Amino acid sequence: MISFSQVCKRYPNGFNALKNIGFTLEAGEMALITGHSGAGKSTLLRLIAAIERPTSGSIIVNGQNVSALKSGAIPFLRRNLGMVFQDQKILFDRTVFDNVWLPLQVSGFAPKAATGRVRAALDKVGLLDREKARPITLSGGEQQRLCIARAIVNRPSILIADEPTSNLDADYARDIMGMFKSFHQVGVTVLIATHDVELLGSTQLRIFELNHGELAT
Amino acid sequence: MSVWLSHHLHAFVLALKRLAGAPIGNLLSIIVIGIAFSLPAGIYMLLENLQAFSRQVSGAPQLSLFLKLDASTDEVEQIESRLKQHPKIASFEFIAKESALEQFKQGSELADVVDTLEQNPLPDAFLINARSLSPGALEELRAELQSWTNVEHVQLDSAWAKRLDSLLKLGRLAVLMLAALLSFALVAVTFNTIRLQILTKRDEIEVSKLIGATNGFIRRPFLYFGAMQGMAGGLAAWLIIFLGIHLIDDELMSLMQLYEIDLRLYHLSPEDSLGLLLFSACLGWAGAWLSVANHLWQIEPR
C-alpha cells in the first residue's frame, strides 16, 4: 500500500517539483504515472524509496510513514521495495549472477538459499542461460531484464520502475511491460513511471497524470 | 546471529579479495608501514637488549661510606652498631684507614709519595650491601646515611648503572614519541588507501545503498581492509627487525668478544610481538574508520 497526502517537494533552488499530491494505491494494485518530462514522475518515485524527502505532507508505504523515517531505518524500507532505476545502475565489474545476488547479500542471505533465489529471479526474466555473462555483453532489453531480476530477487511487496521501457524498441518494451503485469497478477503492488502510454494498449490500469508537478484528476 | 556472522564473513572475504586484487600497490603500502614501524620497534628491541645486558654486568651495587678524618674509634663503633641495626642493610665490611692506605700503596705507583706524607690522608670506611637493589631505594639509603654525624661522604658504586638506567628511560621516551609520530603515518597511509578504494567503488556503494544496505554493511569491508593492512605492516616491521638482527648479530658477537663481553641480540618477546601486531592493526582500523566516516556520506544516491 502506498499513500500520499498533501505532499509537496520543493528543491533548494526554488523549483517546485511536486505540488499537493494525494493518492492511494492499494496493496496488489498496478498503476502508471505519466506526464511530460520534468513533470515530477521520477521525484514521486524517489520519495517512495526515501531517496529524497518531501518538503511537506506525509507518505505511507506499507504502514510506515516514510517522510518521518529515521535514516537508520531507510535501508530496511528499501529491502521491501523492488526498484528499477531510470539509469539502470548495473555494476559492470561483475557477472549477471553477482548483480542479482547483491540485494540478497545486503540483507544477509545464506549463500545456498541465495543461489536458488537468484536463479529463480533470472529464470523469471529469461536470463538464466546468461548468468555467467558480463552485463556489458547483454543487449539493451536484456540489461533492462537484469534490472528487473535484481528488483524482484528479494520478493518485495512493492515494485516501482522509472521509465523501464525508454531506449527500447516496441517489441522489447511490450515484453518488459508484460513482465510487470505478470508480477501484478501474483499480488505485487506495481507503480511504473512512463511517458509511453500507448504501450499498454487497452488494459484497464489506473493512470496518474502529472502536469508540472500537479496531479490531473 | 547467523546474519551477523555472514555479514562479517562477507566483509572479511571482500577485504581479503581487495588486498589480493592490487598486490603491488598494497605490498608497497605494507612495506611503507613496515619501515615506519620497524624504527621505533627496532630501537625498543635494542633498549630491551641493553637493559638485560646492564642487569647482567652491573651485579650488586655497593655503597661506600667514608667517615670524617677526625672520627674517633668510639664514633666509628657507634656507626658500626647503627649499621648493624639498620633494617635496609644486608651486610657491611669495615675498612680501617691504615689498611686502606696499605692497599693504596700496593695498588699504585705513588707509594713513595705516600710515604712522605706526615699523616694518613684516607678516612675509615664501610662497604655496605643494601637489601633492596632498586636505584630508588639505594639512593634513599645513600641520602639517609649521608645525613649521619661524622659521615663525610656516601658514594653509590652503581652510579654508572643508574646513569645507564636513566639513559634507557630517556631512550624509551624517545621510542614512545617516535612511535606516536609514525603511528600518524600509518593512519595517514590507511586513510588514503581507503579513500582511493571508496572513490573507485563509488557505483557499488551507491547501488548498495539503493537496495537497502546499511551504513555498517558498507563500512565493514573497508574497516577489515584497514586492520589487515595495518597488521601486515606490523608483520613487515617484525620481519625487518628479524632480518636486521640476523645480519648484525654475528658481527656484534665477534666485536663484543674483543671486549670479553657476552652480548647477544634477542628479538622482541612474544608479548611485545603480539602487541606490535595488535597495535598496528588497531591503527589501520582507525585510519580506515576516519576515511570512511569522512567520505562515505558524500556518496548518497542522487
The pLDDT mean of chain B sits at 84
Question: How many angstroms does the end-to-end distance of chain B come to?
Answer: 33 Å
* Largest β sheet strand count, sense and barrel closure of chain B: 4 strands, antiparallel
Estimated share of beta-strand residues of chain B: 5-15%
Structure description:
The complex is a heterodimer of chains A (217) and B (302). Chain A is an alpha/beta fold and 217 residues long. Chain A has helices at residues 41-48, 74-78, 96-106, 111-124, 140-152, 170-185, and strands spanning 2-10, 16-25, 30-35, 56-61, 64-65, 81-84, 158-162, 189-193, 206-211, 214-216. Chain A is globular. The relative contact order of chain A is 0.21. The mean pLDDT of chain A is 90. Chain B is of the alpha+beta class and 302 residues long. In chain B, helix 7 (159-200) runs antiparallel to helix 9 and helix 7 (159-200) packs parallel to helix 10. Chain B is elongated. The A-B interface holds A 49, 51, 72, 75-79, 83, 85, 89, 91, 93, 102-103, 105-111, 150, 154 and B 2-4, 6-7, 10, 203-204, 206-214, 217, 301.
How are the SSEs ordered, and which strands pair?
The complex is a heterodimer of chains A (217) and B (302).
Chain A (H helix, E strand, L loop, with lengths): L1 E9 L5 E10 L4 E6 L5 H8 L7 E6 L2 E2 L8 H5 L2 E4 L11 H11 L4 H14 L15 H13 L5 E5 L7 H16 L3 E5 L12 E6 L2 E3 L1
Parallel strand pairs in A: 3-8, 3-9, 6-7, 7-8
Antiparallel strand pairs in A: 1-2, 1-4, 4-5, 9-10
Helix pairs in contact in A: 3-4, 3-5, 4-5
Chain B lengths: L1 H20 L1 H36 L3 E6 L5 H13 L3 E7 L1 H11 L3 H5 L9 E6 L4 H12 L4 E6 L2 H42 L1 H9 L4 H44 L11 H26 L7
Antiparallel strand pairs in B: 1-3, 1-4, 2-3
Helix pairs in contact in B: 1-9, 2-7, 2-9, 7-9, 7-10, 9-10
Name the descriptors.
heterodimer, A: 217 residues, alpha/beta, six-stranded mixed beta sheet, four-stranded antiparallel beta sheet, 6 helices, 10 strands, 31% helix, 26% strand, globular, B: 302 residues, alpha+beta, Alpha-Beta Plaits, 2 domains, 10 helices, 72% helix, 8% strand, elongated
